[in-house]
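User: Here's a structure from my thesis project, written as structure tokens. My advisor, Dr. K., wants to see whether a designed sequence matches the one we expressed. Can you design one independently, without my sequence as a hint?
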């Protein structure tokens, strides 16, 4: 059920993440992923904020601060996909970039050539108990390749394989039951 709230968004403008080294991050996003750097900002506290064009009018941005807290794998970021992928409430689990399905295999090759840690197969996500299938079939709704950037941020190239309909929304939302 969609409720008219009067708010009209047009998608994601950008997501802002934190990096440990802006030069290393810029090299990865520009040279490995082919995302042009289109805006840089020097912050008053000595930090930086850089924006990369990830296509479709969307951007991924990074903050850098000399004194930023260290990474916290398993809390604020994924430890190891797919077997240790839980992250803390309020954290970002991963960032998925839309990609055409026909481009996924070439993306795997490019990540391998660049020495980027990644899944060595395309995941076929379906509604089976495991959540994925080894082969594609009509129940596969997205195909994905997972990898990490130099900051340990889990990224995904995702190709939606079919249109979604009312039957795709069939689970009751879970709730945390608190003791009285």
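Assistant: Designed independently from the structure alone:
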């Amino acid at each position: 059920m969609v409720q008219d709230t009067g708010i009209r968004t047009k998608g994601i403008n950008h997501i802002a993440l934190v990096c440990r080294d802006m030069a290393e991050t810029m090299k990865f996003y520009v040279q490995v992923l082919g995302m042009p750097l289109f805006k840089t900002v020097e912050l008053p506290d000595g930090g930086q904020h850089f924006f990369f064009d990830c296509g479709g009018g969307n951007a991924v941005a990074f903050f850098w601060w000399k004194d930023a807290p260290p990474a916290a794998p398993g809390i604020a970021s994924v430890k190891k996909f797919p077997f240790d992928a839980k992250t803390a409430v309020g954290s970002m689990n991963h960032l998925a970039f839309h990609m055409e399905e026909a481009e996924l295999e070439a993306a795997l090759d490019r990540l391998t050539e660049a020495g980027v840690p990644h899944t060595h197969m395309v995941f076929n996500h379906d509604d089976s108990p495991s959540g994925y299938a080894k082969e594609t079939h009509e129940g596969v709704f997205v195909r994905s390749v997972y990898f990490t950037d130099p900051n340990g941020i889990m990224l995904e190239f995702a190709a939606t394989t079919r249109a979604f309909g009312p039957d795709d929304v069939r689970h009751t939302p879970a709730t945390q039951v608190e003791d009285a």
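When you compare it with your expressed construct, this may help: The chain has two domains: 11-70, 94-166.
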